[in-house]
Amino acid sequence: MATLAGRADLQRYSRHLLIPGVGLAGQEKLANARVLCVGAGGLGSPVIAYLAAAGVGRLGIVDDDAVDLTNLQRQVLYATADVGASKAQTAAERAHALNPQIAIDAYPVRLDAGNARDLIRAYDIVVDATDTFGARYLINDAAFLEGKPDVSGSIFRFDGQLSIFGASGGPCYRCLYPEPPPAHLVPTCADGGVLGTLAGIVGTWQASEVLKLILGVGETLAGRLMLVDAHDARVREVRIERDPACALCGEVRTIVEAGADAEEERPPSTIPGVAAAELDARLARGGVTLLDVREPHERVLGAPPGAVTIPARELEARLHELDSARTYVVACRVGRVSTWAAERLRDAGFGRVYHLDGGLLAYAAFAESFDAF
Questions:
Q1: Of 60, 103, 152, 297, which residue is most buried, by most CB within 10 angstroms?
Q2: Catalytic residue among 37, 175, 189, 249
Q3: pLDDT, tens digit, for every residue of 112-129?
C-alpha cells in the first residue's frame, strides 16, 4: 500500500490535504487506486490530465487511434507536433510529465470483445471516454461482468451526457438504452461537430466522479443521468432506475459475455427527408403527423405541439397505435434514429413515410416555440 511520507508528496498534494474528507488518508486512497480510461480523445484528455494531477496511483490508457489535426480543437493533451503519433502513448507521456510519481500503462490497441474484460479486470474503475455506441455497450457489459463501476460520458455539438453505471447495485447503460441503434444511423462528432470546451466540461466532471468514488465522498451520479447544454448554459438531470427486465443486470440475465451486439453493415437508407425549414408548412397543410421517436429523457422539455410520441425502442410493439393510411414525418434528436424508425414503418406497410432532416435540433432553429435542447 502506497504511503505519502515524503515532503515532495505533501507539497504536491497540499491543496487536497487541506480538504475535510480527503486529507492524508484520502490522498493515500488515490495513490492506491487503479483507473482505466478507454479513449484518449476529447473526453479522455481532461480525464487523464486531472486524474494524473490528483495522484491516482495507476492509470491505464486505451486508444488505438493516432492524433489527427482535427482533434486539436478539443483534445488538449496534444500539440501540433503530435499529429500522426499514437494517442495512448502520447497521452501517457503527457500524464507522466505532469506527475512522474504515478504509474501509467499505455495500451495502443482497440478495445474489443476479446480483451475488454481482461483489461478492465486489472483496474478498480473504468472511464468510458469513447465516441461510439458499440464501445459504450462493450465497456458497460465488461465493467458490469467484472464488478467495476463505469463512469460514462458522451458529447455531441453543444450537448453532453454523463452518469455512473453498474455501481452499488444501480442501473447499467442497458437499463437506459436496452439496445444500440444500427451503427450506420448513429451520429458522431465527425458527422455533426462538437464544441471543444464541452469535452473539457464533461471530461472534467467524469474525473471528479472518479475521485469521489475512490474517496467515498459526496453523492455520485449513479442512478442519475446528467444532461449538459453548453449552448444555453443549462444542466439538468434525469433519474434512472435499474430495469428488472434488463438483459445484462436484470432478474433474468441473457447477456453473460461482453460484446453481445454485432454491428451490421447496411446500405444507405432510401427514406425521403423533409427539411426542417419546411416542416411547419407540411404540417399546416394537414394530413401529416409528426412522429417523435426520442426516448423519454430526451423529451425532458416536451414535444412539438401535435406530435405523436413513441420511443424508437417501443415502436415495433406499438405500431397498432398508428394509422397506415396517414402520412408520417418521423423525427428524433439529430435525424439518424428517425431514419431507422421510418424504415421500420415502411417495412410494416406504411406507404407515406418521411424523416426529418437534421432532427428536432435543426427544427428548433426555425420554430421559436420549440426548444430541443
A1: 152
A2: 189
A3: 999 999 999 999 999 999
- What angle is formed at CA 241 by the lines to CA 239 and CA 242, rounded to 5 degrees? 155
Q: Are residues 40 and 179 in the same domain?
A: yes
The CATH number for 128's domain is 3.40.50.720
Q: Using alpha carbons only, what angle is made at residue 202 by residues 309 and 211, rounded to the nearest 5 degrees?
A: 125
Residue spans of alpha helices (H) in the chain: 7-12, 14-17, 23-31, 44-54, 87-98, 116-121, 133-145, 173-176, 189-192, 196-215, 279-284, 337-347, 359-364
CA separation for the pair 230, 171 (Å, rounded): 26
Residue 354: strand, helix, or coil: strand
What are the counts of helices (DSSP H) followed by strands (DSSP E) for the chain? 13, 13
Q: Contact at 8 Å (CB) between 235 and 188?
A: no
Specify whether 249 is catalytic: no
- DSSP per position, 17-61: HTSTTTHHHHHHHHHT-EEEEE--STTHHHHHHHHHHHT-SEEEE
Query: What is the number of domains present in the chain?
Result: 2
C-alpha cell at 154: 458522451
Tell me whether residue 332 is one of the annotated catalytic residues.
yes
Of 33, 99, 90, nearest to 66 (Cα)? 90
